[in-house]
Design brief:
With 167 residues, the chain is α+β, with helices and mostly antiparallel strands. Helices cover 28% and strands 40% of the residues. The chain has helices at 35-41, 59-71, 133-139, 143-158, 162-165; strands spanning 7-20, 23-31, 50-52, 73-89, 97-112, 125-132. Strands 1, 2, 3, 4, 5 and 6 form a 6-stranded mixed beta sheet that branches. Helix 3 packs antiparallel against helix 4 (143-158).
Length: 167
């Protein structure tokens, strides 16, 4: 039997910080595709905005683009937080095992209205919310993204100067 190489996917996403009411908030999305899962478990799926890195695109630029497309806000990269790596089985097409790497970046809000997304994105994103950063590790649905939220919380506590940059 021929050995088949595992498919690879490279994505990037962002934790968008915004300072409001004397606390940090982050933009989270409820993906459309989560509806079946949500109804089965009776829980809303909350995730960080992310997507595939286009050919020749820097992952940090992917994070900025995906944040804009999926949340409606413009944000600027502050730092890279981490890479999450996992294997999943495609539930469509070939049913292949896929090795996935998602690079997550910490971004700061610059402009735009949350949820002001193009109509074609409504197929992917059911809704967008601001979530207090300190609640994110508990509220986000995926364990890797819970870890990313904890890292973001640690980062802001270690970098109080970010409050000036976020104004």
């Amino acid at each position: 039997m021929a050995h088949q190489r595992m498919a690879r996917e490279i994505s990037a996403g962002g934790v968008v910080l915004r300072r409001m009411q004397n606390r940090w908030w982050i933009a989270v999305i409820e993906p459309q595709s989560s509806r079946e899962k949500r109804e089965a478990r009776g829980k809303t799926v909350w995730a960080l905005p992310k997507g595939w890195v286009d050919a020749g695109e820097e992952p940090s630029n992917t994070a900025i683009r995906e944040v804009r497309e999926e949340t409606g806000v413009n944000a600027e990269v502050i730092t890279k937080l981490t890479d999450i790596k996992y294997v999943y089985v495609r539930t469509w097409g070939d049913g292949a095992r896929v090795f996935k790497v998602v690079s997550f970046f910490l971004l700061v809000y610059r402009s735009g209205e949350l949820g002001d997304i193009p109509p074609e994105m409504r197929k992917e994103v059911r809704r967008v919310e601001w979530l207090p950063l300190e609640d994110a590790a508990r509220v986000l649905s995926y364990s890797g993204e819970k870890q990313v939220a904890k890292m973001a919380l640690e980062w802001v506590s270690e970098h109080p100067e970010i409050e000036v940059a976020a104004k």
